[in-house]
Amino acid sequence: QVQLVESGGGLVQAGGSLRLSCAASGRTVRSYAMAWFRQAPGKEREFVVAISWSGGNTYYVDSVKGRFTISRDNAKKTVYLQMNSLKPEDTAVYYCAAAPQIATMTSEYDYWGQGTQVTVSS
Predict the structure, then answer these.
(1) What is the pLDDT of residues 26-77, one digit of tens each?
(2) Buried b (16+ CB within 10 A) or exposed e, 63-73
(3) pLDDT at position 1, please?
(4) Coil, helix or strand for 88?
(5) 60, 50, 29: which is closest to 96 by C-alpha?
(6) Are the beta carbons of 81 and 70 closer than 8 angstroms?
(7) Are 98 and 29 in contact (CB under 8 A)?
């Protein structure tokens, strides 16, 4: 069993930065690919970025390329999402998820955190 707990969300002005963290528990979590998804009010949950178990491969949605960076520290069982140059359209609840391999579909992910709110004011 894998449990995921996100933190680091908050309110920030457009152009600002936030760093999200996802702390994982479970013996096998180091072998999982990890991802961040987000869900804005009235919209479906969407893929943002994923990282392979080794950290060697990453995949970003086009809208965040060059602004967001995902990383992981397997010793700490923690995944990070550094978000720079934030825009009002980045406002959403951000979820951490774990899957056997890197993927972009929500159905591919077995474990989910409870989410953390990110609000970007204009």
Answers:
(1) 877 789 999 999 999 999 999 999 999 999 999 999 999 999 999 999 999 9
(2) ebeeebbbebe
(3) 82
(4) helix
(5) 50
(6) yes
(7) yes
